[in-house]
């Protein structure tokens, strides 16, 4: 599968409700994609992508890095946010203004007016990589939403309820789509199915996901 870009076609941004407090903003980040990808490449020269290990010792299929004041890490000590990259012992790279402005704008479009993220997780999916159903609950301020930006190859996002036993909905996400969830849906279980092989003009054989959070 090879995807083509049609730069001469206007971008139509639409809002697709998922649940109370949650929606997909279709194509919201498309016009900013190249700047976001340039930012990812700059950040990962200082804080390289890596496959972190879960507390149980399993290597994650997704390669990850972070930027902002706080970065999310997982290792034998558990899941947490910390100010230093464990691979370099240096502070995480600063969050580019393009990143934070896009995230705040997407949050406003979804009805969250005061979102100012202090952490951005950078996830790189290659064919077969996935993310199991989980809750984002390591953040201290759960009144703030999560903003998740998709770049590159399409992948199926799973969005469920507040119990792991609730069957999730499968939502196809494409290049430039942004998912925002908060309020009654803030602790909803979510994940992504394995990435299918393909080629995208801007990202090659992979998909990037930027997940913005307020941790404090």
UniProtKB/TrEMBL annotation:
Query: Is the keyword Oxidoreductase assigned to this protein?
Result: yes
| Keywords, alphabetical | Dioxygenase, Iron, Metal-binding, Oxidoreductase
Q: Give the cofactors, semicolon-separated.
A: Fe(2+)
- GO terms for biological process, alphabetical: oxidative RNA demethylation
UniProt feature coiled coil, ranges: none
What's any one GO cellular component for it?
cytoplasm
Q: What is this protein called?
A: DNA oxidative demethylase AlkB
InterPro entries per the UniProt record, alphabetical: Alkb (IPR004574), AlkB-like (IPR027450), AlkB-like_sf (IPR037151), Oxoglu/Fe-dep_dioxygenase_dom (IPR005123)
Q: Where is the Fe2OG dioxygenase domain?
A: 116-216
Q: Where does Fe cation bind?
A: 134, 136, 190
The record's PROSITE patterns line, in alphabetical order, gives: FE2OG_OXY (PS51471)
- Which branch of life, at top level? Bacteria
MF GO annotations: broad specificity oxidative DNA demethylase activity; ferrous iron binding; oxidative RNA demethylase activity
Stored NCBIfam families = PRK15401.1
Pfam families associated with the record:
2OG-FeII_Oxy_2 (PF13532)
Task: Note how many cofactor molecules are bound and how.
Answer: Binds 1 Fe(2+) ion per subunit.
What organism is the protein native to? Marinobacter antarcticus
